Known about the structure:
Strand content: over 45%
Largest sheet: 5 strands, antiparallel
Helix content: 10-25%
Order of helices and strands: HEEEEEEEEEEEE
CATH class: Mainly Beta
Number of helices: 1
Amino acid sequence: MIIQSIYTVLLVLTGINLSTTDAIPDPIKWSFTVEKVSDLEYVLVATADIKKDWYLYSQNNTDEGPVPTSFTFSKSPTILMLQNVKEEGKVIKKHDELFEMVISKYKSKVVFRQKYKSTNNTANIAGYVTYMACNELRCLPPKDLEFNVSL
């Protein structure tokens, strides 16, 4: 009987924890635009506005720590990526006690740019960004956000 009571309490506590995690609003607000560079060249601009006291991890971190931000693009025979995704912002690079390693992260805002060429003269580009947000107390689970952008 005592074991069943303990099991019930654990289930209730787990349920409360899961429901409060679901209720946490995403501290990262993404916006996506496309800039035309030339007749066939474009740049996808993905901007992450980061809520106060939260951080977004750089794509240049290893997989041994927090999940690095990454972009996956839908395959298209008419789109050719011209370079790797570049990130622009004030990077914070320091030893993280939780992960016991040097980590690069951003607070406030970071912009990611992907230059690409479209062979059929349309700027449409689609895919998803995987990212993870943390504050000083906790980390949210990694999240995938789909995007589909045109000029």
